[in-house]
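U., I forgot to send this yesterday:
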Amino acid sequence: MSMNKIKAFVTAVEYGSLTKAAEKLDYTQPSISHMISSLEDDFGFSLLIRGKSGVIPTDNGLALLPAMQDLLKRSQLLKELVNEINGMEIGTIRIGAYTSVCVHWMPTVLSLFNTKYPKIHIQLYEGNSQEIKQWLESGKIDFGIGTTQINQNPHFIPLMQDRMLAILPKEHPLASLDSVPLKAFTTEPCIMPYEDSHHDVQFIFKKEKISPNIAYQIRGDEAIIAMVKNGLGISLLSELLIKEHLTELCARPIEGNYVRSLGILANAPIQSLSPSSKKFIPFLQEWVLSNY
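Result:
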């Protein structure tokens, strides 16, 4: 069974396009199509439904997809273990991370890591809580960098505590307070993220049994911050997310001094990850410890 054929199919499903899969894998589109057709001949049934708008897996293709993703992951792990035995630091790491991490951490961390391990390739996916969870379950990423609530992920490695802060227009009456009471969110117009993008915000309100007075619900962090700057309401975001905007808005601790625990998310014990991942994780831990 050809791993290249399997990779062609998995990538086509991931991108929903033979053309995009070809670009990703550095093949021609006809070559990708031929590999998948050959795999279908090997299996004796169709794997893809091809249409003008792209491709989607058949029921049989969907049923086989998790096994194929796992096979590719194990194949990569085998290659890296062989390289490690031979003293070669070569591999690929697929990481899913929050926007705040991608913006404030990864440019510096990846640059430093690449200098030390130039032959380890990193694929970075920017996503929210729900996307990272789905990517972990599907095997699209090796591990995530995000947050988890109590007992939600048994393989969580904390990196830092990130304060949750009320953000307000600079001239807002609540800006004079040292700490903003959570009940203020029940009366003030609130600009809130969707639940799938910020579990940490929703966790606080659910724990305190508070229903915020939602004036606007937005998925993008930058849009929320821009709307607060323009006086359209108040919001609740993490300190890491807003650190570059503190001259343009007001940030205050909230009642209860809530924090989110930011760290490594994995679907298996860290010891079972690839040699490349096991090099990156302590590298990141050391960098966060030095900078935060």
